[in-house]
User: What shape does this take?
Amino acid sequence: MKRMFVFVFSLVFILSAHGVQAAGTITVGDALYTPNGTDVSVEGYIVGVPVNIDTVEQSNFTSNYALALADDASETKVDNMIFVKLDSEYRSQYGLQNNPGLMGTKIRVDGTRDDYFSHQGIEYVTLISKVSGDDGGGDNGGTYTGSYYQAAEGLTGYALKQSLHEIIDDHTELSYSNVWDALRHTDEDPSNPDNVLLLYSGKSYSKYDNGGYVDDWNREHVWAKSHGDFGTSMGAGTDIHHLRPTDVTVNSARGNLDFDEGGSAFYEAPGTYYDGDSWEPRDEVKGDVARMIFYMAVRYEGDQGELDLEIADYVGTSGPYLGKLSILKEWHAQDPVDAFEQNRNEVIFKDYQGNRNPFIDHPEYVEQIW
Assistant: This one.
């Protein structure tokens, strides 16, 4: 019996050392001392982008090709980090050049221990996922780490809203025709660069199947353009922070309805419900919708001849109002900021408008204002 125990123990050790993944996850500290060739499942905080054996960028990221993980979200010592090589299928969603807001997010990485840049690393990644309940950022998403919001620090309520307005107010305005090309970029399907993802249905459509026919996608104004009567004019009518690709039929069904819960299922957008005065999108984008509405209410405050858009806590609104505030706040909490939203925010900022959605970067601002 003793010989059998020794044999089994030795066999388990040998299999573990040659790539059989042990149950559960390990810390970065444990992974640093795990032999190369071992399959591992590691949890750690994203702390930067490794660019050589002893250098990790922790701001102004220049690459989407790798991540550095540590057991402490504020770690700066490279010896306490493990490097993760990102293959092409993970770069658009987790690369920090595209998603700087992921800094400090806790993730799980499944892959094989193998040195990267001659430093302890993980390669041949098979899974990356955020660790539920610990994202390293605000109340439900990664906090933006740059100085963009410096003027708003320490403020709450109306003062915070006004400060954020001043920060995001001045930006490049697109023509309505240019919105087509912008959406092909901002809403690109991470799994298929030839397609865009449609907001309400979640379908992946060819980037160039756009227009006004039944099977096309078109430009949905999430803040319905009749709520303020801004149409498609430059400014609110072409602000791509709230313009999204949507199936023509689904867009028509939504019309100018307020946002609320309940109603009948809409067959062309699974998980979507509607009635005579409200529209409820699928769970996966409820938070996205809410944060776009919050953005519009802060960006358009009535100065310089623009509209003053406001969120009401009821449905059946008219004029420059849209509802329903209490439901939008619930959706914001229920559906946290994800990598697609963060990437979209970054692309709009860098390549198109030069301004950001504060509620993607700092989800906690919602409760501090409303």
Notes: Residues 150-369 form one domain. The chain has eleven helices and 18 strands.
